[in-house]
User: What shape does this take?
Amino acid sequence: MPRLFMLIMLVLFGSMVGAGVIVVLVMGYYDWRSIVIGAAIGGALSFPLSWYVAKRIQANDPKDSVE
Assistant: This one.
């Protein structure tokens, strides 16, 4: 699971940071502090989200050989 988590983390981290910045900009905050805070929140949310996705993928994998 740690390898799967890290692979998903690579994709989700960049996506969530970008989404956080976009949300801040859409809300009308254009100063650098707001952009950094939005990116940090997106990055922080990517950790539990990628763990959840990796856990769901592994739980639903019929070829999982963990016994």
